[in-house]
């Protein structure tokens, strides 16, 4: 694939731009309004990596476009393959090639899920997350977000996208919304929004706006139902208590196709007993949702331990017996540091 950098000052990536944004661009440059739809077709339907390939634009308009824009695609610099078939891709941040981000492709029969990143590092500071230990190194543009999707060999095999990689989506909301619009709009890929899940620790202003402006699924990183205990491992609990997050979610209708799920990483002796299960039932009672239990993936820099399988199964059964749909998520890609909470964005 052609290397298509967008780091040149004054040059902007086209990938990630909405139809409205492209219409404004074309109007500002004296190009016909219909050229915006043509550009969308080349970007999102035909997946070109060069402006020269947009052959139904006039040569004059292609030349003008090349002076001010690039496609915004660039190939991953590395791919690691797990023994279970999971692949972890390493990308450079387009406006700062010294920073790296990772995305993970998870094959599962006839399904292919891509876990994408939205930031280099993260501000949230969750004590169990390797990404959070890297600090924050900048938001990803919509082009950098979509590049993770468009520039892997498995693009045509993708059935689902999850925004569960590096970073907090609600802390980079404009670029998340532009990306999901490009994935779901008729002028974009035209996917159902229910093929996309966006995660959050529960930043309430961003979450409220996302719920109002998008129909994509939402996953909330919960990890402990007791506020004081959650704050010990998730500092954002102080600003956005999980009880307030759940109260916001109760204002929306989850009986249709859009889903709300809660991610719950299991830590041995910390959040995996019946006391926590009972409080989780109390917190979520009456909310149509699902809880996904996640095995904690240990790293040398954290003091936490993984819950025993029997404790995870007992916790799952308690929730199911009390009316909360609960499953244990299969762990994938741990041997290449591609499992939940292990993405570090490091060039190996």
Helix content: 25-40%
Q: What are the segments in which pLDDT stays under 50 over at least 5 consecutive residues? A: none
N-end to C-end Cα span: 22 Å
Number of helices: 11
Question: Secondary-structure map with pairings?
Answer:
Elements: E1 12-13, H1 19-28, H2 34-45, H3 59-68, E2 69-70, E3 78-81, E4 87-93, E5 96-108, E6 111-115, E7 119-121, H4 130-133, E8 136-139, H5 142-150, E9 160-163, H6 173-184, E10 196-200, H7 204-213, E11 217-221, H8 227-233, H9 242-249, E12 260-266, H10 274-284, E13 290-295, H11 309-321, E14 325-328
Parallel strand pairs: 1-2, 6-9, 9-10, 10-11, 11-12, 12-13, 13-14
Antiparallel strand pairs: 3-4, 4-5, 5-6, 7-8
Task: Give a quick precis of the structure.
With 348 residues, the chain is an alpha/beta fold. It is 30% helix and 20% strand.
Q: Could you please describe the fold and organization of this structure?
A:
By secondary structure, this protein is α/β, with parallel strands linked by helices. The protein has helices spanning 19-28, 34-45, 59-68, 130-133, 142-150, 173-184, 204-213, 227-233, 242-249, 274-284, 309-321, and strands at residues 12-13, 69-70, 78-81, 87-93, 96-108, 111-115, 119-121, 136-139, 160-163, 196-200, 217-221, 260-266, 290-295, 325-328. It has a ten-stranded mixed sheet with strand order 3-4-5-6-9-10-11-12-13-14, covered by helices on one side. Strands 1-2 form a two-stranded parallel ribbon. The chain has a two-stranded antiparallel ribbon with strand order 7-8. Helix 10 (274-284) runs parallel beside helix 11 (309-321).
């Amino acid at each position: 694939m052609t290397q298509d950098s967008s780091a040149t000052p004054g040059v902007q990536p086209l990938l990630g731009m909405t139809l409205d944004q492209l219409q404004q661009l074309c109007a500002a440059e004296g190009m016909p309004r219909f050229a915006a739809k043509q550009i969308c077709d080349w970007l999102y339907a035909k997946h070109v990596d060069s402006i020269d390939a947009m052959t139904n634009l006039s040569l004059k308009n292609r030349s003008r476009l090349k002076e001010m824009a690039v496609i915004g695609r660039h190939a991953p610099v590395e791919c690691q393959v797990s023994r279970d078939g999971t692949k972890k891709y390493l990308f450079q941040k387009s406006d700062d090639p010294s920073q790296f981000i990772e995305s993970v492709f998870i094959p599962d029969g006839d399904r292919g899920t891509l876990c994408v990143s939205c930031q280099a590092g993260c501000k949230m500071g969750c004590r169990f997350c390797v990404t959070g230990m890297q600090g924050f190194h900048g938001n990803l543009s919509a082009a950098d977000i979509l590049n993770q999707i468009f520039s892997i060999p498995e693009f045509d095999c993708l059935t689902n996208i999850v925004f569960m990689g590096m970073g907090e989506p609600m802390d980079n909301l404009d670029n998340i919304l532009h990306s999901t619009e490009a994935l779901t709009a008729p002028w974009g890929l035209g996917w159902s929004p229910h093929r996309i899940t966006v995660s959050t620790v529960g930043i309430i202003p961003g979450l409220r706006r996302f719920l109002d402006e998008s129909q994509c699924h939402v996953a909330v990183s919960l990890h402990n139902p007791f506020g004081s205990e959650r704050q010990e491992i998730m500092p954002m609990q102080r600003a956005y208590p999980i009880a307030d997050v759940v109260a916001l979610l109760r204002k929306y209708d989850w009986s249709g196709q859009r889903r709300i799920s809660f991610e719950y990483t299991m830590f041995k002796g910390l959040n995996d007993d019946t006391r926590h299960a009972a409080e989780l039932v109390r917190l979520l009672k009456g909310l149509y949702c699902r809880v996904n239990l996640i095995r904690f993936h240990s790293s040398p820099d954290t003091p936490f331990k993984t819950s025993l399988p029997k404790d995870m199964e007992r916790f799952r059964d308690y929730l199911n017996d009390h009316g909360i749909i609960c499953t244990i998520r299969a762990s994938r890609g741990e041997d290449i540091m591609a499992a939940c909470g292990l993405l570090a964005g490091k060039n190996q």
